[in-house]
Automatic annotation (TrEMBL):
Name of this protein: Protein RER1
Span of the signal peptide: none
Function: Involved in the retrieval of endoplasmic reticulum membrane proteins from the early Golgi compartment.
Domain of life according to the entry: Eukaryota
Predominant place of localization: membrane
UniProt family annotation: Belongs to the RER1 family.
UniProt topology in membrane: Multi-pass membrane protein
Residue ranges of the TM segments: 41-57, 63-81, 143-160
Length: 195
């Protein structure tokens, strides 16, 4: 009986070690893709096009496509939204947002609720899951697809309108490329002395 416990425990240890190795290999593979932003997104767009081609050629799985579109829309909204919502971050003195709103205030980079890498990773993973679902007939639920398309377009417009209003109200842009460069006191003094 002790031998059975020992062999059972060792097989669990072997499986656990193998799973740990596979997960470490997978994580190192994913980590290697971090610097290749354009290539990652190109691969994700190609994967989405393969998914759409599969749905169009098979003439089915519209509900899977709709669910995938809603999920991607939620990811995109999280990508455009700041990590700390300015609507909830009020200063006690003037009841306004603490984020800098003028050019002479301190630079604070836009920090996203959903970082770019996690956005790409979630889009890629969900598209792969959706593609796998298109190979199972149980997910091919018959629906009138034009209604789903119209509902998605309506939902997209309402959601983006709300997001754009939020961006205008709190004066932030989710697409900044680098920190602005200011002239230092030394540079200003050098220009004045050279004149």
């Amino acid at each position: 009986m002790e031998e059975e416990l020992l062999t059972g425990g060792s097989s669990k240890g072997v499986i656990s070690q193998a799973w740990t190795r596979v997960s470490q290999w997978y994580q190192s593979l994913v980590d290697k893709t971090v610097p290749w932003q354009k290539s990652r997104w190109l691969a994700a767009v190609l994967l989405i096009l393969v998914f759409l081609a599969r749905v169009l050629l098979a003439q089915g799985w519209y509900i899977v496509t709709y669910a995938l579109g809603i999920y991607h829309l939620n990811l995109f909204i999280a990508f455009l939204t700041p990590k700390i919502d300015p609507a909830m971050d009020f200063d006690a003195e003037d009841n306004g947002p603490e984020l800098p709103t003028r050019a002479n205030e301190e630079f604070r980079p836009f920090i996203r609720r959903l970082p770019e890498f996690k956005f790409w990773y979630s889009v890629t993973k969900s598209t792969l899951i959706g593609l796998v679902c298109t190979f199972f007939e149980c997910f091919n639920i018959p629906v009138f697809w034009p209604i789903l398309v119209m509902y998605f377009i309506t939902l997209f417009c309402i959601t983006m309108k709300r997001q754009i209003r939020h961006m205008i109200k709190y004066r932030y842009l989710p697409f900044t490329h680098s920190k602005p460069k200011y002239q230092g006191h030394e540079e200003t003094a050098a220009k004045v002395s050279s004149k």
